[in-house]
Batch of 2 targets.
Target 1
Amino acid sequence: MNITRRQVLDDLRFLKVLARQYPTIQSASTEIINLQAILNLPKGTEHFMSDLHGEYEAFLHIMGNASGAIREKVDLLYQNTLSQAQRAALATLIYYPEQKLKEVKEETPQEELGEWYRLTLGRLVEVCRLVASKYTRSKVRKALPPDFEYIIDELLHTTYDERNKGRYYENIIATIIEIERGDAFIAALCGTIKRLVVDRLHIVGDIYDRGPRADIVMDSLMAHHCVDIQWGNHDVLWMGAAAGSRTCIANVLNNSITYNNLEVVENGYGISLRPLALFAAETYGGRDMAAFLPKGEATRGYSPKDIHRVACMHKAIAVIQFKLEGQIILRNPGFLMGERMLLHKIDRERGTVRLDGRNVPLKDTDFPTVDPADPYALSEEEARVMEQLKFSFLQSEKLQRHVRFLYAKGGLYKCFNDNLLLHGCVPLREDGSFLPFSCEGEELAGRAFLDYAEGVARQGYYAQPHSPQRQQGKDYLWYLWCGKNSPLFGRERIATFERLLCDDERTWEEPKNPYYLLYERPDICEKILREFGLGGPGSHIVNGHVPVRTKDGENPVKAGGKLIVIDGGFCQAYQPKTGIAGYTLIYNSYGLRIVSHSPFEGVKEAIRQDRDILSTTVLTQATEHRIQVGETDVGQEIRENIDGLRKLLAAYRMGLIKQDHSH
Ligand SMILES: O=P(O)(O)OC[C@H]1O[C@](O)(COP(=O)(O)O)[C@@H](O)[C@@H]1O
Ligand SMILES: [Mn+2]
């Protein structure tokens, strides 16, 4: 379509800015041709994972093997020429180049090494060429490690059997080996392969808590070339702790100590728990800590003395947590959580707590720091401990960096390629209508409420320190973690108090929001998708948060394919429930695929035995045609860029903007 003078003049300011980047007709035209070409390429591959819960070894392996996709490419290329063991060894090399190279050099006789390098480099180039084939050359070049860009680009585009280039290709490989650059090249090729196989990674919440080292998972995500994160309830809890919310800090430590997982706090983030340990020993040492022992598995290998010490810390921080939560609830009547204040309902004489009109027996009523006259006030020592812990959380450079990354690359939800990515739920009433929330005097529901909640969550970290907005934001991060009908928590209440102190398991109930019943219905899912401007045949809701009981035959796909839950128990503590070790949802140009992962035996096993995580496809939803970039959100962006460049071309040709040939 030809562009009128009017259209160019309307956009002249924007076009002058664009002209700085494309100063001539030639440069603007080249970019248009390049962008137009990309529109016809097959859609990039997206991987979705959720509920990683600190399981860094399994996660790093899954990142390395691209949820099984790399092994598929190796099998595709070499099923007729390499044995199963040789293919497994090649795949392991791609996953762990440094470690596998070390092992190969230890175990391969010197005189055979040269041949091993020649064969291996050739095969890695072929695997790289296969995974690069769906992209333009310029996109592949941008993905290459700068030091090796020229040579790898040459190797990728020089087919071995070309008569006049056969020697040329062989010479490059021979020279690499001769000047002992084989290892560096192998690492560069493996990195490129991993980078090209997954175009975009979505983490749909719950990176933190339970498993050993969420900080290592975060470091790996920060190194990923293209990742976005939809916050989970455990993530916003750590964001609140990093923002300096003492209530979030108390909850973070309660969760970590429950699993005896102090490593992520002390070693990962360099936060000393010494103040808490000393206070706990002083206040609770020698008393009965039966109700506060770390969870089963987490006590293996610890002496009774150590376990008692951790249990004292657990009780100390839990009491502080219940007090501070009472204060937040009093500060925020809009949370409608008054019935969750339980400390003043404890009857020490009878050893019970008043719950839903019943006197429920407590396992422990020994609370020396709780003043019955003012049960939610911290004692002097408790206040001092929390100030010291708050200072440590604020001072942890790595934690602050990780949380800034969660804010920059994350959000409460994400709409991408017709899918709605959301860790928890869109709170609903029983009748399927969007549950309204009072937000500073306004009733908000559905998307408007989620947008409001995300804004307040950002205030918690970015509003002026000590301002009311900052305090509101920090309180809100705690609300999103465990608040009544929070979109990231999706339950009536969190029963931490009851699960710690009451034997009566009826009190442990955490009734789910009606969303978790209604989300089996396609019409409800369609209504939710439309609320976010999505909907139609290729549109899905992707949730994490609730472990799919695969073992009991539960299907991750619900509502006739409109909704997919991908929490497959990546977290070891939940694997007995789900029977698998997590899911990855794969969305490529052929459609959707869900793979479930087998439990991971650890990196050493993987390298020594060439053991992989067996990822089996449990469901596919093929699209009737191969999806092109042009049909995706990225394609939409590219079309807008092309439109701008065509207007710029017109502006040059109409003499409305001068070309600048000086570059
Ligand atoms: O978002 P998630 O992973 O379900 O975690 C929140 C849930 O975990 C719990 O704290 C229980 O945790 P654990 O299973 O680790 O004991 C529940 O009270 C709460 O509903
Ligand atoms: Mn969750």
Target 2
Amino acid sequence: MKLLPQIQVEGGAEWLARTATQCLIDEARLSPKPGLVDSRGNGAHHDLSLALMERSAHSLTPTFQALAQQSWQRPADIALRQTIGRLGREGEQQMMAATGGVNTHRGAIWALGLLVSAVAMHGGAGNAKQVAATAAELAKLPDAAAPKVFSKGLRATHRYQVPGAREEAQQAFPHVMQRALPQLRLSRLNGSSEAHARLDALMAIMTSLTDTCVLSRAGLEGLDAMQDGARAVLNAGGSAHPAGQAALAALDSHMLSLNASPGGAADLLAATLFLDRIESPYFKH
Ligand SMILES: CC(C)(COP(=O)(O)OP(=O)(O)OC[C@H]1O[C@@H](n2cnc3c(N)ncnc32)[C@H](O[C@H]2O[C@H](COP(=O)(O)OP(=O)(O)OP(=O)(O)O)[C@@H](O)[C@H]2O)[C@@H]1O)[C@@H](O)C(=O)NCCC(=O)NCCS
Ligand SMILES: Nc1ncnc2[nH]cnc12
């Protein structure tokens, strides 16, 4: 194995941490997102705001940096899994301290934390597919130090017999790799603005994700509304098209009326933006 100078590791880790944080901020600001916090307002949330989401994103930069430093050019093994589990849980505490106890980004710490680690494990040289596969390897390893908590996500996955955040990562992020990333790039190729391309990518995730936030808040009715509504936006030509914008506004109203918010889909959009950026020429050269 070729050892990289420490300065390269530090620089790479700092870039990854800054980029992951920026992806969280880009996701939070993107508007109009159905049911979610965006630059218009708080969506279906009473305890969240854009300012809080941004504060939370910034509080996670040291966690992402530590994850990258600790994972640099290491193999996926139990020792690394335990290290990133510990760092991830510390990140959750940083987030809670920054938000006064509100859960803003738990799913994002999981998804982006694994992906940041996986990029670092490849020494910054992997493509999106390789990075997602490596993140899945990590996610499949047991973490003996993880406390046994019966979370809302676990409750929803058991009750409705569906995959959640854990399975999404263990399956190498199918909603990112097979839906959002191709849609982001297709919409850009078709001449959509960056904001419209990102909104289309979010819709692509929402067409089939079993988002445990939506299930916990609004059950199967909420999940069907999310998936059918997102499909309607894309079938109407996407968010750059007037018919797609009308469908997106209808979906927003429907989600708000059900108190539903696709927080898991939002996290996966941030993960999509991150994987898109690691493949950009700025990163590679
Ligand atoms: C594996 C963990 C992610 C834990 O997962 P689990 O399902 O057991 O636990 P949850 O605490 O429910 O967290 C899952 C969060 O993942 C997001 N999500 C939901 N569905 C999916 C999906 N299908 N695919 C991917 N991601 C998904 C979602 O996060 C967002 O929503 C959060 C707000 O939701 P909630 O708490 O339910 O809040 P509200 O409904 O708004 O609450 P009320 O206002 O109604 O009270 C928000 O944080 C978004 O990020 C789910 O919440 C993982 O966390 C874990 O095991 N971590 C341990 C540390 C570790 O090993 N880390 C390694 C990498 S760093
Ligand atoms: N923009 C957003 N609104 C609500 N919950 C979220 N979780 C992650 N991003 C979110």
